[in-house]
Amino acid sequence: MADDENKAGTDRANVGRDNGADILLSIHFNGANGIARGTGTLVRPRRDNVNFAEDTALAERVNDATYGAILAHDAGARYRGVKSERQLAVLSDPQLGNTALYHPLRAALLEVEFIDHEDVDKLLSITDGYEQVRQDICDAIAATLLEDLRRKQ
After folding, report:
1. Which of helix, strand or coil describes residue 81?
2. How far is the C-alpha of 127 from the C-alpha of 68, rounded, in Å?
3. Geometric angle at alpha carbon 39, from 37 and 45, rounded to 5°
4. 64-74, pLDDT tens digit by residue?
5. 35 three-class SS
6. Nearest to 119 by CA among 35, 63, 40
7. Nearest residue to 149 (alpha-carbon basis) of 40, 54, 85
8. Closest residue by Cα to residue 45 from 92, 96, 9
9. Whether 27 contacts 110, CB under 8 Å
10. What residues have CB less than 8 Å from 31, skipping those under 6 apart?
11. Could you tell me the pLDDT band of residue 41, with boundaries at 50, 70 and 90?
12. How much is the pTM?
C-alpha cells in the first residue's frame, strides 16, 4: 500500500513535468461557508501562462463535463465556470516545464463541488445512488480527457 502524502503544489506540478504528462488536472472539492456551491475550474492567469488559451479550452471542457454529470443528478447544481485570477503553484509554468518556446503540458485545477454544502454532502455521500453520482463524475472527466488527448495527436 502506498503512503498518502500531501505534496506541495510545486511538487505536484513537477510530477507532471518529470513524467512527460500532456495534461495535469488537479481535482479538488471545495469548502467555504456551507452555502456556496457549484463546479468551477481554475487556470493560471494570462500574464504568467504561456498555455493560457490551451489551458482555458481544456478547463472549459472539463468543467462543462463535470457540471453536466452533477446536473444530471441534481437540479440545484451550479455552474461557476472557468476563472484565471489566482496564482496557483500546481499550475506554475516553470514547475510544469513550460516556456514560451516549448510548452507541452496543459494544466487546470477542477473544483468539483463544495462538500460543506448539505445538498452536496447528501448527493455525494449519503443519498441512495451516491455511488452512481461519483461514477458519473469520474466517467465524465475521464471521457473529456481522453477526447482532448485524441484531438492533440
Report:
1. strand
2. 19
3. 115
4. 999 999 999 99
5. coil
6. 35
7. 54
8. 92
9. yes
10. 114, 115, 116
11. very high
12. 0.90
AA letter at 117: H
Q: Coil, strand or helix: which one is 131?
A: helix
Answer yes or no: are the C-beta atoms of 26 and 89 closer than 8 Å.
Answer: no
Residue 84 has what pLDDT? Answer: 92
Instruction: State the sign of the Cα–Cα–Cα–Cα dihedral 91, 93, 97, 98.
Output: positive
Residue 149 is inside which H or E element, if any? helix 130-152
Which domains can be identified in the chain, with CATH numbers? 9-152 (3.40.630.40)
Q: What is the pLDDT of residue 67?
A: 98
Distance (Å, rounded) from C-alpha 118 to C-alpha 116?
Answer: 6
- Number of neighbours of residue 42 by Cβ within 10 angstroms: 24
89 secondary structure, DSSP code: G
Cell 496543459, residue located = 106
Alpha carbon distance 20, 113 (integer Å): 29
Average pLDDT over residues 56-65: 97
* pLDDT recorded at residue 153: 62
